Amino acid sequence: MAEKLTGKAEALRELASRSIADVEARMSKLEIRNSGEARVSAALFLTIAEQFQAALTLVDNRSSSHAAAPIRSMVESVVDLVNIAKNANYVNQLIFDNARTDATSLTRYLDAMGDGAIGPSADRFREVLQITEETRDRLKAAGFKRQTREDKFEMAGLVDLSASYGLFCMLVHPNITALTHRHAGNDNKFKYREPVHPETMSTLLSVAIRTLTEAVRHLPCFSNIDRAAAQTLLDDMRTACLNTSRIPRRGVRAVPRLMTMRRSSLEVRDFTACHPKPRLDSDRGFLLFAYMIPKPSTSTPSDRMPSN
Questions:
Q1: What is an example of a Pfam family matching this protein (predicted)?
Q2: Torsion over CA: 216, 218, 220, 226 (sign)
Q3: Residue 32's beta-bridge partner residues?
Q4: What tens digit of pLDDT does each residue of 82-112 get?
Q5: What is the pTM of this model?
Q6: Of 233, 275, 217, which Cα lies nearest the Cα of 29?
């Protein structure tokens, strides 16, 4: 049985359904530009949409205390998406981060397996380890280094989401805070699959919608969706928000940026880096990790690309 939502949380849940429906209605016509950074951006966008749906599934199935996990990942993804739109070379930062962590993980796995690391799987792991180490070392020599999550939020201009991200981290890991939040009930009784506090629910849904909107803003930077079409989609989401009458006015103001009803917060930005050229490993790097992210089969014709 689904959780019973009321007031602002109920209205936000309704708005979330309308928002993702508007986004998914455009997906069948989405074409991705033929560049490494565009393909990575598209994968980030699709991941954000999938995680949005995953969060709603948890909310609708009496597991809302775990909804912070996919929403936190949405925030991470949109930060990377915005940074790619600002600077195509940021893809190489992602490739460096990926190669560095994969090299460490594979090394630890093979070391732990010892003499037991035999067979086709182990051989494949060693092959990938060599590639990731070479990629890591080459990009390190080119000047790339580890960046903190805080650095990435600041670069993206999404510092307002960093506070929500930190809060969600507290609710995701199996630490005392999260365990208490999920399972500590009244009269020394344990809770199981009980709804989160209404204000917590409103925060979860608000940040999810805010993040999805930020991702939609950047569609023109990697797809055939031009600024006008993206703006139409954002306007549709804004209209849905205005029509969600059960959100109290003071509640509307409490929701970060998306819900403030200021048109400026729902406009497509004119990015100067909407037509970045592939640099360094942006294409090769995407193919390097193709076993994790399938390469899209379509690309955007140049005559359909939005102008800078």
A1: DUF5677
A2: positive
A3: 223
A4: 999 999 999 999 999 999 999 999 999 888 8
A5: 0.79
A6: 233
